[in-house]
Design a protein that fits this description.
The protein is α/β, with parallel strands linked by helices. Bound molecules: beta-D-galactopyranose (GAL) and zinc ion.
Length: 691
């Protein structure tokens, strides 16, 4: 099943169960939500106690009443299953539902998102309530989507989970000796005699066995996925016809989301960047990468399920969103492929931990606030932008940001325990491509490479499956590939490859690694351009943290090290392979080096680049394409006004300030230009510069 909508969803989490004794508030909320152009709310997240106040005693009438009222008022419902937080009676009667931590301590009752996914009782009770909810609301015309649980995450080390981990390992390895080989347990005499001896990683026990750590993380994803599938199954058993989703989190590395993607009908996620904690241009670029990652999971529209209207209460500092940012952040999600802007939350709670979190309707209970006004403006904008709903955001360029590789790199002892900076390196590649005005997909190494012209696969330390063959084939057929330091070091069990590395790629890259130097914080080296007369590169760049030493076979140097005992040896290279080129950057270089190298790569790849000189810092360009044409979003996330570059053949379509003054974008302003389908900027229109 697929979720699709013909209009952008606008609204967010709403907890009417907190206001049942003041029905006038519920009525006022509906009036205010309509004023803000809200058309969808998420109900039922954490509502278990109100739905089942004691074992097997169900009260759905209040929920039905509110769903009906919302429906009468043109507001759809995304209905959550309540399993994100359990009622006290459940934990008291069946303590096995509580999670056990890595120290093997069973939690006391409290908090949320902290249950055991293996517990038969938890599974039984969630299935029971989910089934009943589905029976009651599975065909309700207001309910358009199921929201399973909330922000799945964390892990449980209880005896039940240990047992299923052992069974999972048995299925994966077959014999214990295969497990011993894969985990290299002869080292420090850690050989297992039987699967029954295996314990999940623990600070009290085994922490250093990377094979165990990786398999445990894979198992946690599998367990979580199994629990998600279990809930979906219960909804279907209850007769629910609507599509399902579950909300993913910002840059969350505890789960391999790619593995959960087939279970849901649409990807949705919660975006809470730390706006204003650093230059907003930087925060916006980081958030853009996360949006693109979510879109790339299923290569299609996703939903922004939660975001904050203004401040959050849980970040270190509850900074207000500056005027205009509420709309800019929402439209950024849209630009990157979201078919919704949803918030946490519609009405601010009176008590408990989130009483000071921003909301559409605050404690004052009025719409006469800055936040409400900006939210209403944004709701109106979504109505005006309706024809963009469901359009795609296809990309010619891709960057790998691979969760399992992240586990391995960040968990590896050496070469740099003081910080390996994987995410930052991915971000540098991503920013460099986006500066050129390109849409970028953010992929896992298991995803298909067809259709891309450029793939940047930074720090691809762990190689799984047939990735080497696929990368070789990609370049052979004419693609351009960028690899960087620490490529091709270990296999999926974190065993180092024997022989020349980057493993399997020495011919592709035309080089091999000889040594890896890690630099202390504060130390640096330089990268010097090889051809003195070129304008492709600056004379010199700074690099730090990681400097690999490489020996070239067929590759040609573009940059060489400027200092240290490896001064003059290659650091950035190009190698022709089949019809394409493979590039290598062996050091952790500064941003401008990534920018120049990826521009050099993109120009050689003859990609349609709108801005070969690079967009100004903080100005984002993103494109959605549909049957009626292409929509180019320009957004200013810098703190200064930015001139709008001319886009030939494009017509003004929408702007924060209407059609006036669109040649200058103020901070947080957006302008959207439309190119008719016939003029769409594509491969046949290569290399045009419009600046
Ligand atoms: C999310 C969570 C919501 C709410 C929100 C506050 O992570 O899913 O329930 O707590 O944070 O920002
Ligand atoms: Zn457990």
């Amino acid at each position: 099943m697929k979720f699709s909508t013909d209009h952008f969803l606008y609204g967010g989490d709403y907890n009417p169960e907190q206001w049942l004794s003041t029905p006038e508030i519920l009525e006022e909320d509906i009036i205010l939500m309509k004023q803000a152009h809200v058309n969808a709310v998420t109900l039922g997240v954490f509502a278990w106690s109100a739905l089942e106040p004691s074992n097997d005693e169900y009260h759905f009438e209040w929920l039905e009443r509110i769903i009906d009222r919302l429906y009468e008022n043109g507001i759809s419902v995304i209905l959550a299953t309540p399993s994100g937080a359990r009622p006290k009676w459940l934990a008291q009667r069946w303590p096995e539902v509580l999670r056990t931590d890595a120290f093997r301590r069973r939690a006391l009752y409290g908090g949320r998102h902290n249950h055991c996914y293996s517990s038969p009782v938890y599974r039984k009770k969630t299935a029971q309530i989910d089934r009943l909810l589905a029976q009651r609301f599975g065909r309700h015309p207001a309910v358009i989507l199921w929201h399973v649980s909330n922000e799945f995450g964390g892990e449980c080390h209880c005896a039940l989970c240990q047992q299923s981990f052992r069974e999972w390992l048995q299925a994966r390895y077959g014999t214990i000796s295969r497990l011993n080989e894969a985990w290299y347990t002869l080292f420090w005499s850690h050989i297992y005699d039987s699967f029954d001896d295996v314990e999940s990683p623990s600070p009290l026990g085994e922490e250093h066995l990377m094979g165990l750590n990786l398999d445990w993380k894979r198992f946690v994803t599998e367990r979580t996925g199994d629990f998600l599938a279990h809930e979906i199954h219960a909804l279907r058993e209850g007769g629910a016809r609507q599509p399902v989703t579950t909300n993913f989190m910002y840059d969350y590395a505890g789960l391999d989301y790619q593995k959960l993607s087939d279970l849901v009908d649409i990807v949705s996620w919660d975006a809470y960047p730390l706006w204003h904690s650093a230059p907003d241009a930087r925060i916006a670029a980081e958030c853009a990468l996360q949006h693109d990652r979510m879109r790339s999971i299923r290569k299609g529209p996703f939903l922004l399920m939660e975001s904050a209207l203004s401040s959050t209460n849980w970040q270190p500092v509850s900074r207000l969103k500056r005027p205009g940012l509420l709309q800019a952040q929402g439209l950024q999600a849209l630009a990157h492929g979201s078919d919704s802007i949803l918030y946490f939350q519609m009405r601010q709670s009176r008590g408990a931990s989130e009483k000071l979190h921003s909301a559409l309707i605050g404690h004052s209970g009025t719409g006469d606030t800055r936040v409400f006004y900006e939210a209403a403006q944004t709701g109106l904008a979504l109505q005006q932008l309706r024809e963009l709903c469901g359009t795609q955001a296809p990309a010619h360029a891709a960057v790998f940001y691979d969760t399992q590789n992240r586990w391995a790199l960040e968990g590896s002892e050496g070469p740099r325990n003081a910080g390996i900076y994987y995410r930052e390196t991915v971000q540098k590649c991503y920013n460099a491509l986006r500066r050129l005005g390109l849409n970028v997909d953010v992929l896992d190494q298991t995803q298909p490479l067809e259709g891309y012209h450029i793939v940047a696969a930074p720090m691809l330390y762990q190689l799984r499956g047939d990735i080497v063959e696929r990368l070789c084939e990609f370049v052979e057929r004419g693609g351009s590939l960028l690899c960087t330091a620490l490529t091709g070091v270990t296999d999926d069990s974190d065993l180092c490859f024997l022989g020349a590395t980057p493993y399997g790629m020495t011919e592709l890259l035309g080089l091999q690694r000889t040594e890896v130097d890690a630099l202390y914080d504060g130390e640096s080296n330089t990268l010097v351009r090889q051809a003195a007369d070129t304008t492709d590169f600056a004379p010199v760049y700074r690099c730090s943290r990681l400097c690999e030493l490489i020996k070239l076979s067929s590759a040609k140097p573009l940059l060489v090290y400027g200092e240290d005992f490896y001064r003059g040896t290659p650091a950035a290279t190009i190698n022709q392979y089949g019809r394409g080129f493979a590039f290598y950057l062996s050091a952790d270089a500064e941003d401008s080096c990534f920018n120049d190298l990826l521009r050099f790569i993109a120009l050689r790849a003859q990609l349609p680049i709108r801005f070969p000189q690079g967009l100004p810092e903080g100005l984002e360009l993103t494109e959605r394409i549909g049957p009626q044409g292409s929509y180019i979003f320009l957004q200013n996330f810098s703190n200064a006004s930015q001139p709008v570059p001319t886009l030939p053949a494009a017509q003004f379509f929408w702007g924060t300030r209407g059609p006036k003054n669109v040649d200058l974008l103020s901070p947080f302003d957006t302008a959207i230009f439309k190119l008719p389908a016939s003029e769409a900027f594509d491969e046949n229109n290569k290399g045009v510069s419009v600046l």
